[in-house]
Write a structure and sequence with these properties.
The protein has 223 residues and is α+β, with helices and mostly antiparallel strands. The chain is built from four helices and seven strands, in the order αβαβββββαβα. It has a seven-stranded antiparallel sheet. Helix 1 packs across helix 4 (180-201). The longest helix has 22 residues, at 180-201.
Length: 223
C-alpha cells in the first residue's frame, strides 16, 4: 500500500516522507513524525479514502514532520495576527495506486476568520454540515472544515479569534461526484484527518474528540 513515487519540483521546499502505520493515541510529544497523515490499513480513514478515490490501495506522502507542522501552524497564526490572513500548510498527499490519471487527495490547513464558516456562495451540489464543534461544506472536489481550536500559552487568545480551516481537494473526483453519499464520505474523512491536526496542535477544547456524525444542514444545495 506504500510505494515510492517520484515527486515534482515545488516552489516551496518541504520534507516528504513515506508514511508508516500509526497505532493510535499517544501523548502529543510522542506522536510519530508521520502522525498527521499516516492512514493504517483497515482504519476508518483508509476505508473512507479508498471509497472516495475508488481504489484498493494508495501511496501516502507527508508534507512536514509532526513537530515542524505544529511550528508552521503556530507561525501562521502569529502572521495572521499581524496581517489578518494566513497561507495554508500543505500537509498530506494521497495517490491512488495503479491509476494512469494525475488525480490525488491533498490535505492542507490554515487559519480563517470566524465569519468564513458561514459566508460565501455555494456551487451547485454543495452540502453544508454541522459536526460537533465544527462546520463544513463538501462539493464534488473540495471539502472544507472549520473548527474552533483553542491553543495553549501565548497563542490562546489569538486562537480564539480564528478558526482552524482544513481544505481538502479530491481531484480524483473531478467531474464524477453526483451523489451525496460520496460527499458525506469526503466530509467524514476530512473530520478524522483534522482531528489528528487538533491533537498535534494541542487544542485545549478538544473539538473533534467525538466520532463524526455527518448530517447535512437543511437547505443544502441540490443538483
Amino acid at each position: 500500500m506504500r510505494r515510492s513515487r517520484s515527486w515534482p519540483l515545488l516552489a516551496v521546499v518541504a520534507l516528504f516522507t513515506v508514511t508508516s502505520c500509526s497505532d493510535g493515541a499517544q501523548p502529543r510529544a510522542e506522536r510519530p513524525d508521520d502522525y498527521a497523515c499516516a492512514v493504517s490499513a483497515g482504519s476508518p480513514e483508509a476505508k473512507l479514502l479508498s471509497q472516495v478515490m475508488r481504489t484498493d490501495s494508495f501511496t501516502t506522502r507527508n508534507g512536514y514532520r509532526s513537530s515542524r507542522f505544529v511550528e508552521k501552524m503556530q507561525d501562521r497564526l502569529r502572521e495572521y495576527g499581524k496581517e489578518g490572513r494566513t497561507l495554508a500548510v500543505r500537509q498530506c498527499f494521497f495517490f491512488p495506486d495503479g491509476r494512469s490519471d494525475d488525480g490525488q487527495t491533498t490535505v492542507e490547513y490554515g487559519w480563517a476568520p470566524l465569519s468564513d464558516a458561514q459566508k460565501g456562495t455555494d456551487a451547485a451540489g454543495t452540502r453544508r454540515y454541522s459536526l460537533n464543534w465544527a462546520t463544513g461544506r463538501s462539493g464534488d472536489v473540495t471539502t472544507d472544515l472549520y473548527v474552533r481550536c483553542e491553543l495553549p500559552g501565548e497563542l490562546k487568545e489569538p486562537s480564539k479569534k480564528v478558526l482552524l480551516h482544513a481544505d481538502v481537494s479530491f481531484t480524483t473526483n473531478l467531474g464524477t461526484v453526483k451523489d451525496h453519499g460520496t460527499q458525506d464520505q469526503q466530509m467524514s474523512f476530512v473530520y478524522l484527518m483534522t482531528r489528528r491536526a487538533t491533537e498535534l496542535l494541542g487544542c485545549e477544547n478538544k473539538p473533534l474528540e467525538k466520532d463524526p456524525v455527518v448530517k447535512p444542514l437543511n437547505g443544502s444545495t441540490s443538483w
